[in-house]
Design brief:
The structure holds two protein chains of two kinds. By secondary structure, chain A is α/β, with parallel strands linked by helices. Chain A is built from 18 helices and seven strands. In chain B, helix 3 packs across helix 5 and helix 6 crosses helix 13. The chains are: A alpha/beta, B alpha/beta.
Chain lengths: 392, 331
């Protein structure tokens, strides 16, 4: 191989890595300049930016002012994410997790005065639940960024299965089969990106209760949860075909409510369970990130499928009261890929190539979300085992 | 698979495809302002010179003005998406073709708008890459090692040192005194000297593209502009020289600075291999002017490329074509 072709090969790899968001080592003859960051406090954590430092300190100050409020969030799903996040553990001083320490910290006037006055405009009136939301809004960054949360494990949930076929098309194609096939292809594509552990809630044609799916995500420490479904409409709307993506929240229209009722029918949850999970509705981090994930997936899926089918309708990315999304404690979305009740769409869905394309669009949407969040860059290659856990 | 290379420029956007199609369009996108305009124009969106021609009836966007997408402007992001779609149409990709697109964008846009640009492209192509314009030019010319590319565009002049890989941040520099700046200078100089004549920025840009030069010249630059509605001839040689030379000090300074920061062992090689691309490289006498201007430091050799309009798109096409299948699968 000549020198020029070697260089070309190296350049092509670098372009690929750059575009795939893979951290790239310095290939040049020189090492990049290393800029020493000034230490923050005494051997304290190194913050990503001054803004992050200010935001963290602001949040901690808020902890001092209203510990009870923060405890709600530190015992919720965000706390579980935090506990699993080494980078977060390095950000939060463990002493601050105790009420006494929080009180000490908030009363430490010397530290308080180090904060920029303009950034510390939160007053006591803001220290309410509504004020907490307001404060987060004022931080100007998502909580996932604030706490530098990572994504290691993605759980893909093919809807229905076994005795529950889900929707069935007029030609006999079943939702459970299409969802499983797309989910498997999506898993394979995500594994190829080389940065994530990807699991399926079911890898065979078997019935899995919604509660089991939720438990699976929790047991496997899922960081993202993507549920795959195919929609179906009544016969009078058989010509209609649309794509929609949900994240948990109150229904925005009657159709969302009806769809949620349909998808929730085998939840296997007791009322007692619901009290616990409903308490999690206010989880800011989950809602924020679920919305972002849903938007990214939906945008990619719709724009790509639209090229194949000019009649495809964009039903949007929206909230819906789906049990599976409520139960999962991490950012989660439910994708209704298209309408199997539309005959032409059913024909398309029956073709492996089309299902592979759908999986590809979903993968791109997920990776775009992760890239936007900067997650991929923070994953250290080699530390994460690339496993497809074949369950069931 | 149809491979497409696109040079998404501030002033012109160019497409070069593996089916042999090579087209360009001025980087203007316009949507009819209201239903009357829509009915009159009969189109949902207009591009390039057609958009400019009907600009009064359009919400017009030049999405990469100043080399970047303006922050938070959905219209500019939508314009990039439309422009990419239009360029792919110009490449005559069939509706069922699988498309692999490599897009060169101004270096600064790559830094600050990468995600937005990737999103805009992704709605049109199954496999895509985004690189900086000077890099795509370098790739097309095979100038991958110990070379410097200067891409003189409308919004920015992008500098990039190649050393056998994708350039790192410190290998690249952008300055804002570029083609648009020259147009503004020329417009100002002409308006001051000939207040009786009516000039517009579009007119002076056309004057520059036809007659632009740097350094000494024996020929005179004569143009016609309306005075009270009557076209009158003006000699604008001096104004043209002053305007075209206005970005040169910044360009020379940046070249010297970038070379000085490079590995000392390879500085000599880089100095002997400086390639000037972009529309600005067509200024008459530019290579000898820059060679002369850097003589007071260590002498440099500048070469202007022969086909600046298509060099970026051709380079991007070559990049897309050369990309190994196993990488493409993951892009």
């Amino acid at each position: 191989m000549t020198r020029s072709s070697k260089i070309k090969k190296k350049v092509l790899r670098a372009v690929y890595e750059d575009n795939a968001g893979i951290p790239r080592s310095c290939h040049g003859k020189r090492q990049p300049k290393v800029v020493e960051e000034p230490p923050v406090a005494d051997a304290g954590p190194r913050f990503r930016s001054k803004a992050t430092l200010i935001a963290i300190l602001g949040l901690v100050a808020l902890v001092g002012l209203n510990f009870r409020l923060i405890m709600v969030d530190f015992t919720g799903p965000a706390a579980m994410q935090m506990a699993d996040s080494p980078s977060l553990q390095s950000l939060i001083d463990p002493r601050l997790m105790s009420p006494e320490a929080v009180a000490d910290f908030s009363l430490d006037s010397d530290r308080s005065t180090t904060l920029e006055p303009a950034r510390m405009s939160w007053d006591s009136a803001a220290i309410t639940t509504g004020g907490y939301d307001d404060m987060l809004a004022r931080l100007g960054m998502p909580m996932a960024d604030l706490f530098n949360l990572q994504v290691h494990t993605i759980v893909i949930d093919p809807g229905h299965g076994g005795i529950d076929p889900g929707a069935t098309g007029r030609q006999g194609l079943m939702e459970k089969d299409v969802a499983l096939d797309i989910a498997r292809r999506l898993r394979d594509k995500l594994l190829m990106s080389g940065s994530y552990r990807v699991l399926l809630t079911r890898n065979t044609d078997r019935k899995v209760f919604l509660k089991e799916r939720v438990a699976f995500a929790k047991d496997n420490k899922a960081d993202l949860f993507i549920s795959i479904h195919i929609n179906s409409l009544p016969a009078e709307a058989a010509s209609v075909n649309y794509v929609e993506t949900y994240y948990f929240g109150p229904h925005t229209d009657q159709q969302s409510l009806e769809l949620a009722e349909k998808e929730n029918h085998d939840s296997d949850y007791a009322m007692g369970d619901f009290r616990e999970v409903i308490a999690r509705i206010g989880d800011t981090l989950k809602t924020e990130e679920s919305k972002r994930l849903a938007n990214a997936i939906h945008r990619r899926l719709y724009s790509s499928l639209r090229k194949r089918n000019r009649d495809l309708i964009d039903a949007g990315s929206k909230t819906g009261p789906f049990v599976v999304l409520l139960g999962v404690e991490v950012p989660s979305v439910l994708v209704e890929v298209s309408c199997i009740s539309n005959k032409a769409e059913e024909t398309r869905l029956s073709k492996p190539r089309y299902r592979d394309d759908v999986a590809g669009f979903l993968k791109t949407g997920i990776l775009e979300y992760l890239e936007q969040r900067g997650y991929r860059r923070s994953v250290e290659g080699g530390k994460i085992q690339h496993v497809a856990k074949q369950e069931g | 698979m149809l491979y497409i290379g696109i040079d998404l420029g501030t002033s012109r956007s160019v497409v070069s495809a593996s089916n042999g199609n090579r087209k360009w369009v001025e980087s203007y996108v316009g949507w009819p302002k209201d239903f009357v305009a829509k009915k009159m124009l009969g189109k949902r969106v207009l591009f390039g010179s057609e958009a400019l021609e009907h600009r009064l009836a359009l919400n017009l966007s030049r999405p990469l003005q100043n080399g970047v997408l303006k922050e938070g402007t959905d219209q500019d992001e939508a314009a990039v998406e439309e422009l990419i779609g239009h360029l792919i149409e110009l490449a005559d990709a069939g509706p069922d073709s699988e498309i692999c697109v490599a897009v060169g964008v101004p270096a600064e846009a790559l830094k600050v708008n990468k995600v937005a640009i990737k999103n805009a492209i992704a709605s049109h192509a199954s496999k895509l890459m985004v690189v900086s314009e000077p890099f795509s030019v370098a790739y097309g010319l095979g100038a991958l090692d110990n070379a410097m590319i200067i891409d003189i565009g409308a919004g920015t002049v992008d500098f990039c040192i190649m050393h056998g890989t994708v350039p790192l941040e410190e290998d690249q520099r952008s300055i804002l005194v570029a083609g648009d700046y020259v147009d503004e200078q020329l417009f100002r100089l002409l308006s001051e000297k000939h207040p009786e004549a009516d000039f517009s920025l579009n007119m002076v840009r056309r004057f520059k593209e036809k007659h632009g030069f740097v350094g000494e010249t024996k020929r005179r630059v004569k143009i016609e502009a309306p005075v009270d509605g009557k076209f009158t001839e003006f000699d604008i040689t001096e104004e043209m020289r002053k305007a075209c030379e206005s970005p040169m000090p910044a360009i020379v300074e940046t070249v010297v600075d970038l070379v000085a920061g490079f590995d000392p062992e390879f500085q000599e090689s880089v100095r002997k291999n400086i390639i000037v691309a972009g529309g600005g490289s067509q200024l008459s006498g530019l290579d000898s002017y820059l060679t002369e201007a850097t003589r007071q430091f260590e002498p440099c050799t500048f070469t202007c490329i022969s086909d600046p309009l298509f060099a970026g798109a051709d380079g991007a096409l070559e990049l897309a074509t050369d990309m190994p299948e196993e990488f493409l699968e993951k892009l």
